[in-house]
Structures
1.
Amino acid sequence: MQDNDKAIIIHTPQLPANTIDGYIHYVNSIPVLSREEEAELANQWISNQDIKAAQKLVLSHLRYVVRVAKSYMGYGLNLADLIQEGSIGLMKAVKKFKPEREVRLVTFAMHWIKAEIHEFIIRNWRIVKIATTKPQRKLFFKLRSKKQSEGWLSSSEITEIAKDLGVKEKEVIQMEARMSYGDTPFDLPDDIDDANDRLSYAPVEYLEHKSAAPDEVLETESWNNQMHSGLQEAFNNLDDRAKYILQQRWLNHDSKATLDDLAQHFSVSKERIRQIEAKAMAQIKNHLTADETI
């Protein structure tokens, strides 16, 4: 394990068993860090691998883990398990957080928290769907013990089991179907690329993509191309000084120039640079707006 992957061990006060409400009350009582405190602790962790600094960052953000975990309770999973998985995501976020990006840790960590919770839900989805209520769990276990073969139940077996368990025959059929379904990966492994070698097809090959129809995709691509072309044309219509200012201010991602830098370059005031920049932006906006109305 690399030094940067050092585990962040969190020490919290011992709580009595099964007191999730007590845990939530505890994490909500931890003060929220200011931007300056957050940056200082992050720098201590990055520079010195200060575990205590990392612990403070994690503890101060556990309230957000609880908030996210509660939003996923509809999947039938235990809240404590969801919080635990979300906390793992938070610790991963703290290890990768860089304060110089000027983004608060809570914003950066949300992706990692949700990713861990999503992974946990996906891993446990099938067993949750098999039996989500107490009667279903009872039927599930009793049906497993009463089923005599690996094949599907016969009509007489369904009737007998339903009568014995005091449930409807429809419920026995539904539970048997749930028990018989296997987990299917969304996509096939990379080494299965010959259609003749496949015994089944993954959902990625036959499920419809609901997010966009082909005509909408083409329309979006056409609009993006038009906007890119219009933006390039509008930029080319600017004078050389305005082009240089916009280039240095917005198009150089590695070294963005300040108003002061450009003022010294052109021997004018910072306010004059700001005016030129604003006018150039307005010209580009007007050009693009005119194109949209055509």
2.
Amino acid sequence: MMRGTLFVFTVMILCASLHGCKDNSPPAAGNQLLTIAVIPKATNHEFWKSIHAGAVKAEQDLDGIKIVWKGPAREDDREQQINVVDNFANAKVDGIVLAPLDDVALVRPVREATAAGVPVVIMDSGLKAAAGEDYVSFVATDNVAGGRKAAQCLGAVLGGKGKVLVMRYQVGSDSTTNREDGFVGAMASEFPEIEIVSSDQYGGATTESCHMKAESLLTRFGGELDGVFCACEPAAFGMLLALRDAGLAGRVKLVTFDPSEKLIEAMAAGEVHGIVLQDPLTMGYLAVKTLVSHIRGESVADRIDTGSEVATPDNMTEPRIAELLRPPIDKYLK
């Protein structure tokens, strides 16, 4: 309770020092500094650092805004993220950009923030709420399409035949669920000779938990597997470690979402065969820009797709793919 109270007090002092007390009506363009809270699912992965860099780029490019970056340490800490949203809403920041780590648990705080006159833009992962009513806009990858691209990549690597498994991430994560469902659907419709031997097991929010689950799955299915799909970086790296431990890295083809330096190195070594690349820097940038445009009375789209590409060992040095593999975050995060 004391920590929560202290956080509210600190944010209120910050907001007061920036622009004074705020009423619920949209501010006139250019008349005051806007404080925008940007809340990721967590702060400990490269993906979120790229989102942060995009938000800072927006702060630099757009006149009269100040970014406040805060999120939970882990992607399974729903309660902490809810508290962060509630605290910023109570402090009356001018707006919130949120990547909800649970598509149901974050509905209540988002609705309450909106009702209190604090507009919210959702980014990266969806919310079971109404765009244009409960929140302003949704800025994210089309994750179903991304999952389909992952299936097409793995299907091509396997020559349209074989056995694969899907190790899911965690319950309630809208973005990864859509990727996993997009993958399963595309495999069924486009590659009838590829059998999915398991698609209902969850690795959890950390590399460690994913590694443990991957070991269990490989113990059960490893002898017959030809390919694996994981929907995010922690799951993919946990699976890669388990494949290495089992002597299957490279032989079992691994396709995933989102790069890290270790996964990029593994792709160069032939242990990863495809990485679906989002554009998190652009996502962070457009989420902030969309919210600022709304606050300043401009019309914005309910849904903004930031696109995706697929990196493979054959194209990973091409300029656009190389930039998405290693976004220039150091340019914005000092």
